[in-house]
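Sharing a chain and its predicted structure for anyone who wants a worked example. Both blocks are below, sequence first, tokens second.
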Amino acid sequence: MQLARATGRAAASRKYDILSALMALGLSQDKVAQRQIMRMMALITTRYNWQRDELAMGQREIARLWSVDERTVKREMAKLRGRGWLVQKTRGARGRISTYGIDFERMLEDTRPAWALIGEDFVQRLDPNASVPAGEETATNVVPLRKVVPEEGGSVWGQAQAILHGEDASTYGAWFHGLTEVDREGGTMILAAPSSFIASYVTTHLRERLRVALRRVDPTISDLRVVC
């Protein structure tokens, strides 16, 4: 994903898009993940220099902002670096503080599954693969969403995918398209998700919709599991 630097005329909307994507992702996850994302948002909104791509803030100052101790700061900053969101530019030494950049391309890619929770217009604005069909260019700056359709196939899961896509193409593209059938144990269908986040979200919020679609194809399916 090639993300334009958040400066210039489009800077304000780009910053809001990034923060909105983080917010939607956080609200869809558990309290631990929500807290981590909120801490990241606090760093961005209070101390990040967009022009220089620089976050320069000491552990004591971060601890005060987050209302935690410095050990927690050290641990959480390591986790944010591990996610690829924070990129260390200089290491603090001899009384100097560490400086970080923020990999917004990685951040937006990680939040992609939550874009549809904001709305189709948001997905259209951020989807890097969207394109305007030939002959349909208009004066608008909103780019049509790239269509994601299920592969044709006669399997139970293939037919269920077609049903799910027909019911709601946006939800299908955001959450169901990446699922694959891995096993069948009696009346239980087992699907694999491309990430633990998607597996958790689908299980929590969309499991019944999946189950109903599967049962429309094969009434002997009584349950399903989504694994990663």
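Comments welcome. Strands lie at 48-49, 54-56, 86-90, 99-102, 180-185, 188-192, 223-227.
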